[in-house]
Each structure stands twice: as structure tokens, then as C-alpha cells.
């Protein structure tokens, strides 16, 4: 057990330990508070520095309206001293405006009641500074119960930037809207693809081209403008543009409104990863290009058929085309031309083949021709080549910078021109030495050419003719030379007929001095008219004499015809008496005659019959005198008519011991005609055959018919006729008589037969050769 001293010692030790522990605790707590105070001072200093340099200044508005505000913020607000109450923010010529101050007070009151923050922009009076105020209920740590803390930002620069950005946004928006309007109004499909190359926007023309309901419908369904699908279709061009980061174009077919069209599609990459595109309809351009190509091919094919040489050079002066005449003219080989030689080389090749004019300074001459490529208009010149060749060279610059050259070989033309000049000189000399008076009038009626005979005939002055007067003025002056001045109009009429009506006309006029001229106007191939005058004074006198003689001959012929007719009628009376007395003697009325006397009487009767027939024939010929004989037309059966004619000639044929055959076919039928004249035709043909057939010969009469007419054929196997006899067989003035040297007689029978046949509208043909007999065919129409 402890004693009291020990207890005290223990208590003292405990108390000492407690004191030491409390002292240590106090020391520890003080050190820690000191360290916290030091940290708080540093933090306060840092925060004060940060607040001093912060872009926003704080202002506390307490519940009673008092304001805690720094001097710096007061200067921002345009106040000389910090305000004590919120109402002090608006003063007469300083601080906020009354409107801004009232609005701010309303915001503060709202924040105090609802606890919602607010934001407002205000501007100090007399200052360009813009202040942004953001307010919220003050935290408890601010030690302002029911108060509001306002953070004030100097937004002057921000506000200017905002205004600038707002203006930029407005401008960009305007541009976007205008660009969108342009895109929508563009007369071509336009679209935009996103980064995934799907359609994101299309214009109205695109929608119309694909027959879409709307732009949203087309984008939603992903309707492509051109045919194809996948990366090988319309997206291929967009992929190339995106990957190459360059604009790509490609011609693609498309069906628009049911028509096949060719489009030129352009795709342009954008910075967003998308691709913008548009399409231009080049169908018309392609067709125009195709037509141009076809036209170019056709033009070159046409140029290849020209007789002139044609060569075309491109803008780089290389040969691009030449036709066959060019190759032949300049001896150009196809394999050499295939290399498209340059203009200078072509000229040098021409020089080598001696197809260029001989010049002293060939390089200079060649340089002058090289300038044809740059000439404003065409060039033309003549080349005289060795050997007498003449070329007309035409050089025409082309719009694309090339040159077209045409080489026309005018050698023959030059030769023809020389020959023409010679002919003109010959014509002039001929004009001047002709006996006729000549004048050439143009289509407008003016005198162009004349000879001295023309001038002398009319007595015109050379000065008057040199004015190339019109035909009316010339006729007016020529009227004084005519016996009847009114006949001068004939000159105008003839010239007008030749130049305008293109007809040849003529006429005659008498001059006042007794001369007579024959006029003629002849149209010329060049549209002019040739007026000729021939002096017919001598022939007019001869014509008068011949006319008088002809009238005398006609009167004599009429007398002769009347005499022959009268004599024919007069001869009939003694012939009738002779015939009657001879028949009486032959019949024995005067007693029986001896055998010799009977022969004599029969000879008399035969001669009388022959003479009577000749009288009838002479009467028929003299009565006709070139006129159609008068016919009594009736239906005539040819069979009995032909047999009657054969019976009439049969005794004569029997006397000459001829084989006389008659063939009449059933097709002979009837014709409309004069029976008497037709029987005379058959008799004349048979008598002609009998007269030309020797004894023992054969004669054939053949008659047949067809639907259109009848035919009478008389043939014999006699001696035939010479060509001269056949030619005059039907001539009534042919030499009549008996057979001479084997040639049958040509009497009046055949001319009369021909006259009667033609009067019936028929034809008669005679075919004969010496030793081959004679064939006569008569064709008579049914009508």
C-alpha cells in the first residue's frame, strides 16, 4: 500500500503529465492554426490577385439593397465612387441608363425571389464599353443572406466580335440563300453527296429529271440521275474526284422523260469529305459533233471528187488532208503523205518535182507563203510552172488556225482563152467581110456588135452605134430609110422575138431607094439575138420574072389540060364508030371474011379497046390534077369485084398463054369504097403483070383480109424491073411504052391505081428485081 506521500507524488506526476500533455496539445494546435492562417493569407493574396486580374468583377447586392462594389468596377460603370445602393447605379450623367438600371433591378429582385440566374448586357453612359452582367443568388459563404452576386464582364471586344461575326453570319446566310436559289434555278441537275457518297441534297432540275415527287423523296430513295449501280456506275466519277481531290468529268448516258440523253457529269471534292456534282446535257452537242463529223467526211469525199487539187494544213502547219487530184498534180506518194509532213516540207517536195514556179530567192518566197496562215483574208495568185502548166492557187486561212489551199489547173482554160481570142479575131474579120448586114442585140435590147455592112446599109454614124442604142431608138432612126416608115417596127418585133421569146422570125422590107432586104432574127445560145439583113433586090427581080413565067406556064397547063380533055372526048366518037363497024365486019354483016381479014378485024378491035382504055385513063388523070378523085362510097364485097377484074383480064392472059391463078380467101369480106374504082385498081395491077410476063409465065391474084382491113396481092414471075423503073413506076409522067430491052412498060395504070388506093385511105407497095418477078401489095382499111 502506498503512503500518503507516495499518493501525492503520484498525483503530482499525473498532474504534471497532464499539464505537459495539454501544453503539447495547445502548442500543436497553435502551430497548426498558425500554418492554416499562413495558408489562408497566401490563398487570400492569390485570390485577390486573381480577382484583380480577372476579366470579370464581382458586386454583391444585399437583401436591403446595399451594394458591395470595388472602385475598379465603379469605373467600369462610369461612376467616380463606388455606389452604396443598387439605385445609385443610375445617375444624371454617369452610371447606367435609367432603362438598364431598372431592368437590372428587376433581374436582381427576380433572382432573390426565385433563385434563378440571369444574364444582361448594359452600357455605361458616355462610354463605348459594353458590360455583360451575370447574376445568381449569393452563396452562404458570401455572408450576404438573401443577397445576389453579380459578375460583371467587360464584353466590349467580345460584343464587337459578336457583331462582326453576326454580320459575317448574316452575309454568309445571304450568300447561302442566294447560292441555293441559283442552284435551284440552275437549268441543269445539281447535287451534293456526303462523306459516305450518298445523296444529301438535289436541286429542282434533278428532281424533274428523275421524275421525283420532291427533293426529300429523291434523297430518301437515293435515286441516281444516270444509269448503273455500285462503284462502276454514277459513283465511280465521285470516288475518283474524292480520292484525287480534283474535279473529274465523264460522259454518261441517261434517260430523261423517256428520251435517251448524253450527259457530261462533273464531280468536285469538298473540304467536308463530300462531293458536289452537276450534269450538262450534251446530247445536242454530241449530235452536232456527229453531224459535223459527217459533214467533214462528206466534204472531204466531195473534195476528193473535185478536179482541182485540195490540201488542208492544221494549225501546227502539218498536212491533215489532200485529195487525189492534189496527189496526181504534185506527184505525192501516199506513204510520204501519211507522215503528215509540215508545210515547208510540202513546198520543198513540190520544188523537187518541178511543180513550183522558178524563183531566185526560194527561202524568202517560202516565208511569204508561210504567212498565209496568219493572213486576215484569202490569198490568190497564178503559178506558171515549167512545161506551160498554169495553176490558179487559192489559200484560205481557217478559223482554227489552219490553211486550205486549192490548186486549179487552168492550162486548158488558158489555151481555150487563147483560142477564144483567136476565134474572136476571126469572128470580127468574118463579120466585117460578110455580104450580109449583121447586128447582135443583148437580152435588154441594146446593140452589142455590128459590122460595117450593117452601118452602111442604114447609114448610121459610128458615134451613134458606139452608144449601143436600144432597138427602139435604132428602129426610130432607121424608119427614114424605108419606103414605108411604119414597117420599122418590124425590127423591134424581130429582135424582141429572138431575145425574149427565143423564137426565130423573119420578114422583108423595101427601102426608099428601091432596094429590098430580107430580115431574120435568130436567138443565140448566150441569150442574145442575131439580126441579119440580106439584099434581095436582084432575087426579087428574078422572082418577079419567075412568077410571071409561072403564071404563063400555069395558063398553058390549064389550056393543055382542057385540050387533052376535049381531045379525049372528041376521040371517043371516031373510036365508037371504028369499034362498031369493026364488030359488024367481024360478025359477017358485010359478007364472010377471009381468015386473014378476020385477023385484021380482031387486031382493029383490040387496038380500039386499048385506045379507049388509054383515053379513059388520060381523062381520069387530067380530071384529078393532084386532087383526090371523087368517090361514091358504099359497102363493097371484094370477092366478086376481084373475080370480075380477073375475068376481064383473063382473055389477055390466055392469049399470052399465061398461068393465071386466083386465090380469094373467106377473110376478104367487105370494105367501104367505090366499087368501080376498086375494080379498076385490080385490073390495072393485073394488066401491068400481064404486060411484063413472057409466054408460059405465071400470074397470081391473092385477096385476104383481117379485122382492120383487106389486102390485094398481085405477083408474077416475069423479068422484073430495074431500080430506076421501080422508082418511077407510080409517076404519071413516067415514060410509057412497051417492053424495051426486057424492061416492062410503064403506062398510066399504076399511077391511077395508086391514086385510087390512096383516095380510099390505103397504101400500095411494089417490090421487084431484075429476073425475080414483081410483087404489088395493096392494103385497104375497113372503115
Question: What features would you describe in this structure?
Answer:
The protein is of the alpha+beta class. The chain has six domains: about 1-55; about 55-155, Beta-Lactamase; about 185-280, 2-Layer Sandwich (Beta-Lactamase); about 285-415, Beta-Lactamase (2-Layer Sandwich); about 435-535, 2-Layer Sandwich (Beta-Lactamase), CATH 3.30.450; about 630-780, Histidine kinase-like ATPase, C-terminal domain (Heat Shock Protein 90, 2-Layer Sandwich). The protein contains 23 helices and 27 strands. It has a five-stranded antiparallel β-sheet, with helices on both faces. The longest helix is centred in the C-terminal third of the chain and has 51 residues, at about 535-585. The protein is elongated, with a radius of gyration of 70 Å. The model is unreliable at about 735-745 (pLDDT under 50).
Q: Any guess at the CATH architecture of the largest domain?
A: 2-Layer Sandwich
Widest β-sheet, arrangement of strands: 2-1-5-4-3
- The CATH topology of the largest domain, please? Heat Shock Protein 90
Query: Mean pLDDT, nearest integer?
Result: 80
Beta-strand portion reads: 15-25%
CATH superfamily of the largest domain: Histidine kinase-like ATPase, C-terminal domain
Major sheet details: 5 strands, antiparallel
| Helix percent band | 40-55%
Quaternary class:
single chain
Report the C-alpha radius of gyration, rounded.
70 Å
Please tell me what the overall shape is: elongated
Q: How many domains, in number, for the residues?
A: 6
Structural class: alpha+beta
Distance between the termini: 203 Å
Low-confidence stretches: 735-746
Q: How many strands appear in the DSSP assignment?
A: 27
Quick one: CATH class of the largest domain? Answer: Alpha Beta
Number of helices: 23
Amino acid at each position: 500500500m502506498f503512503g500518503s506521500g507516495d499518493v501525492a507524488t503520484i498525483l503530482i506526476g499525473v498532474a504534471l503529465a497532464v499539464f505537459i500533455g495539454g501544453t503539447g496539445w495547445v502548442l500543436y494546435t497553435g502551430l497548426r492554426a498558425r500554418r492554416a492562417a499562413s495558408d489562408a493569407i497566401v490563398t487570400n493574396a492569390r485570390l485577390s490577385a486573381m480577382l484583380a486580374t480577372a476579366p470579370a468583377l464581382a458586386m454583391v447586392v444585399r437583401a436591403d439593397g446595399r451594394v458591395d462594389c470595388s472602385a475598379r468596377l465603379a469605373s467600369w460603370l462610369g461612376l467616380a465612387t463606388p455606389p452604396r445602393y443598387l439605385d445609385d447605379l443610375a445617375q444624371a450623367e454617369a452610371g447606367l441608363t435609367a432603362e438598364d438600371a431598372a431592368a437590372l433591378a428587376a433581374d436582381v429582385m427576380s433572382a432573390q425571389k426565385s433563385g434563378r440566374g440571369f444574364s444582361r448586357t448594359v452600357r455605361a453612359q458616355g462610354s463605348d464599353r459594353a458590360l455583360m452582367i451575370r447574376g445568381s443568388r449569393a452563396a452562404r459563404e458570401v455572408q450576404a443572406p438573401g443577397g445576389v452576386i453579380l459578375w460583371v464582364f467587360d464584353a466590349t471586344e467580345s460584343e464587337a466580335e459578336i457583331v462582326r461575326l453576326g454580320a459575317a453570319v448574316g452575309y454568309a446566310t445571304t450568300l447561302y440563300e442566294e447560292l441555293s436559289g441559283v442552284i435551284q434555278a440552275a437549268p441543269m441537275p445539281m447535287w451534293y453527296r456526303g462523306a459516305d457518297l450518298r445523296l444529301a441534297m438535289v436541286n429542282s432540275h434533278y428532281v424533274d429529271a428523275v421524275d421525283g415527287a420532291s427533293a426529300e423523296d429523291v434523297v430518301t430513295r437515293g435515286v441516281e440521275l444516270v444509269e448503273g449501280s455500285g462503284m462502276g456506275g454514277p459513283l465511280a466519277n465521285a470516288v475518283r474526284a474524292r480520292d484525287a481531290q480534283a474535279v473529274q468529268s465523264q460522259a454518261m448516258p441517261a434517260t430523261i422523260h423517256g428520251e435517251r440523253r448524253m450527259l457530261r457529269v462533273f464531280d468536285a471534292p469538298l473540304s467536308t469529305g463530300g462531293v458536289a456534282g452537276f450534269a450538262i446535257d450534251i446530247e445536242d452537242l454530241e449530235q452536232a459533233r456527229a453531224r459535223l463529223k459527217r459533214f467533214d467526211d462528206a466534204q472531204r469525199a466531195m473534195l476528193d471528187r473535185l478536179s482541182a487539187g485540195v490540201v488542208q494544213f492544221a494549225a501546227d502547219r502539218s498536212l491533215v488532208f489532200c485529195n487525189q487530184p492534189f496527189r496526181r498534180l504534185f506527184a505525192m506518194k501516199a506513204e510520204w503523205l501519211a507522215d503528215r509532213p509540215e508545210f515547208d516540207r510540202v513546198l520543198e517536195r513540190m520544188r523537187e518535182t518541178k511543180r513550183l514556179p522558178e524563183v531566185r530567192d526560194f527561202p524568202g518566197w517560202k516565208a511569204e507563203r508561210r504567212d498565209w496562215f496568219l493572213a486576215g483574208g484569202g490569198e490568190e495568185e497564178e503559178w506558171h510552172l515549167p512545161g506551160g502548166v498554169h495553176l490558179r492557187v487559192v489559200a484560205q486561212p481557217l478559223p482554227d488556225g489552219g490553211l486550205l489551199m486549192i490548186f486549179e489547173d487552168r492550162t486548158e482554160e488558158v489555151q481555150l482563152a487563147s483560142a477564144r481570142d483567136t476565134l474572136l479575131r476571126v469572128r470580127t474579120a468574118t463579120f466585117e467581110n460578110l455580104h450580109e448586114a449583121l447586128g447582135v442585140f443583148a437580152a435588154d435590147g441594146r446593140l452589142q456588135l455590128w459590122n460595117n455592112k450593117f452601118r452602111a446599109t442604114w447609114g448610121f454614124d459610128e458615134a451613134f452605134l458606139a452608144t449601143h442604142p436600144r432597138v427602139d431608138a435604132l428602129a426610130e432612126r432607121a424608119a427614114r430609110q424605108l419606103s414605108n416608115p411604119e414597117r420599122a417596127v418590124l425590127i423591134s418585133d424581130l429582135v424582141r422575138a429572138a431575145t425574149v421569146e427565143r423564137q426565130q422570125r423573119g420578114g422583108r422590107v423595101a427601102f426608099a431607094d428601091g432596094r429590098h432586104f430580107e430580115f431574120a432574127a435568130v436567138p443565140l445560145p448566150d441569150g442574145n439575138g442575131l439580126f441579119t439583113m440580106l439584099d434581095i433586090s436582084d432575087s426579087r427581080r428574078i422572082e418577079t420574072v419567075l412568077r410571071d413565067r409561072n403564071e404563063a406556064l400555069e395558063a398553058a397547063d390549064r389550056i393543055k389540060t382542057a385540050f387533052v380533055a376535049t381531045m379525049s372526048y372528041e376521040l371517043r366518037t371516031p373510036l365508037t364508030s371504028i369499034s362498031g363497024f369493026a364488030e359488024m365486019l367481024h360478025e359477017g354483016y358485010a359478007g364472010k371474011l377471009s381468015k386473014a381479014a378476020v385477023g385484021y378485024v380482031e387486031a382493029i378491035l383490040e387496038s380500039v379497046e386499048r385506045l379507049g382504055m388509054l383515053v379513059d385513063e388520060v381523062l381520069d388523070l387530067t380530071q384529078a390534077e393532084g386532087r383526090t378523085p371523087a368517090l361514091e362510097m358504099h359497102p363493097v364485097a371484094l370477092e366478086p369485084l376481084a373475080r370480075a377484074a380477073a375475068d376481064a383480064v383473063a382473055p389477055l392472059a390466055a392469049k399470052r398463054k399465061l398461068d393465071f391463078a386466083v386465090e380469094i380467101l373467106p377473110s376478104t369480106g367487105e370494105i367501104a369504097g367505090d366499087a368501080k374504082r376498086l375494080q379498076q385498081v385490080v385490073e390495072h395491077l393485073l394488066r401491068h403483070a400481064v404486060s411484063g410476063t413472057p409466054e408460059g409465065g405465071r400470074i397470081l391474084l391473092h385477096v385476104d383480109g383481117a379485122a382492120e382491113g383487106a389486102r390485094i396481092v398481085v405477083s408474077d414471075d416475069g423479068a422484073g424491073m430495074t431500080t430506076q423503073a421501080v422508082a418511077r413506076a407510080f409517076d404519071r409522067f413516067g415514060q410509057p411504052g412497051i417492053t424495051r430491052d426486057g424492061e416492062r412498060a410503064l403506062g398510066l395504070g399504076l399511077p391511077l391505081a395508086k391514086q385510087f388506093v390512096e383516095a380510099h385511105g390505103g397504101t400500095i407497095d411494089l417490090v421487084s428485081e431484075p429476073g425475080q418477078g414483081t410483087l404489088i401489095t395493096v392494103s385497104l382499111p375497113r372503115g
